[in-house]
Write a structure and sequence with these properties.
elongated, 5 domains, 3-stranded antiparallel sheet
Length: 413
């Protein structure tokens, strides 16, 4: 449609726009031609149309918040309705009115989106609160503090929810952090107190260890050092730098004492090495007695006498180096145990009480067998085959026991 369809110019140069309600004067352009006048006011219309088109794009693209979009539509529509321009102003107003339901839909969508985000934020904050309360009840003093700081950073990154719920969750979160911090401070204060107490104990132990370092009472002093070590472990840790320094003193004193003791023992071991050679020879004599023990004709009394002589010389030989004691004493004990075992076996075989019981058992079994044989003869005379079979079975069992009893009696004979 041409500009003449939307407006006209009268003889005095006044420009009119045609609307649904009739004509309305929009201005004058007396200096130009009617065509120029209409062109001037038509350009004003084009500028309004461009503004409407731009607003449509921004609303459709979601560039404006619903409230801002509503105000913009209202402002531009007021400009359109009262515009001093020539063109289809009603169409522009209709285009603006068509944006209203779109803005309403966007408002509802944003409201739903905010509600979803709020629900998600609430769930995440409740999760943070639960973890903070769990940490507040625990004793993980190192990792717990770091984790609570991380939880606080996560809280700050989350959007606020409705004021009442947000404040309630924050109070729980803050209370948990405060409770944990107080318990943590109390723990470390108590720990520092214990460490200071351990420091005093360990200073005393280090001083005593240094006093004992020059002792030559090897047994008693070594035992005392073991007791000092037990007390050191029971004292617990002192402050680290002090604990390390005290341990260095304590350990150094021990090293001095035990180094001196080892050197003294080494000298003694060297002195006793000759005794070990003597006992090695005596062992050869003692172990040479073992083969004779297996001979039934061997006189055990002679073997025992020979071993006693060797044992006397063994005792007279004196001490040996400590690293040889177990080996030498073990070998000597094996010879002694072998002789004792032969002696016990001979006693067992010659035990009169056991021999009498064995002989008695033989006599009783022989009497029982004679009785069964008599019963078998009687049963055979009667033709009682079943009883004969039963007695025969009983007889075989008794004969086996008799053979075993005779062998046992022979062992004691």
């Amino acid at each position: 449609m041409t500009s003449e369809q939307w407006g006209r110019v009268d003889d005095e140069g006044t420009v009119f726009v045609r609307t649904a309600d009739g004509e309305r004067a929009v201005g004058q352009y007396p200096e130009g031609t009617p065509e120029e006048a209409l062109s001037f006011f038509t350009e004003r219309y084009a500028a309004l149309a461009f503004e409407v088109e731009l607003l449509e794009k921004r609303v459709h693209g979601g560039k404006l918040a619903p409230e801002e979009a509503t105000e913009s539509v209202k402002s531009v529509r007021a400009q359109v309705v009262e515009a001093n321009a020539v063109g289809d102003l009603a169409a522009l107003a209709a285009r603006l009115d068509a944006l209203t339901p779109l803005i309403a839909a966007q408002r509802e969508a944003r409201k739903a989106e905010r509600a979803a985000k709020s629900a998600q934020a609430r769930a995440e904050k409740e999760k943070l609160v639960v973890e903070a309360e769990r940490l507040a009840e625990g004793n993980d003093w190192r990792n717990g503090a770091n984790r609570l700081r991380e939880l606080l950073d996560q809280w700050k990154a989350l959007p606020r929810i409705d004021r009442a719920a947000d404040d309630a969750l924050w109070r729980r979160f803050s209370t948990a952090r405060t409770a944990y911090t107080r318990r943590r401070k109390s723990h470390f204060a108590e720990l520092n107190e214990k460490r200071e107490g351990a420091r005093g104990v360990k200073e005393r132990l280090a001083a005593e260890a240094e006093e004992l370092a020059s002792s030559t009472d090897w047994g008693a002093t070594a035992g005392r050092y073991r007791e000092l070590m037990r007390q050191w472990k029971a004292a617990g840790p002192a402050p680290k730098d002090i604990d390390d320094a005290l341990w260095k003193r304590f350990r150094g004193a021990q090293d001095v004492f035990f180094g001196a003791r080892d050197a003294a023992n080494a000298a003694v071991d060297a002195e006793f090495s000759a005794n070990a050679e003597v006992k090695e020879q005596l062992l050869l004599e003692a172990e040479a007695l073992l083969p004779a023990l297996k001979d039934e004709d061997n006189d055990l009394a002679v073997t025992k006498a020979a071993f006693r002589d060797i044992a006397d010389r063994w005792d007279a030989a004196g001490k040996v180096p400590r690293d040889r004691i177990r080996d030498l004493e073990g070998r000597m004990r094996k010879v002694e145990q072998a002789i004792k075992a032969v002696e016990d076996e001979q006693w067992r075989k010659s035990d009169p009480e056991k021999s009498a019981r064995a002989n008695d058992m033989v006599s009783k079994l022989e009497e029982a067998i004679a009785k069964i044989e008599s019963d078998i003869a009687a049963a055979e005379a009667k033709g009682d085959a079943k009883r004969v079979a039963s007695l025969q079975e009983n007889l075989e069992g008794r004969k086996q026991f008799l053979e075993m009893a005779r062998r046992a009696s022979a062992d004691f004979g």
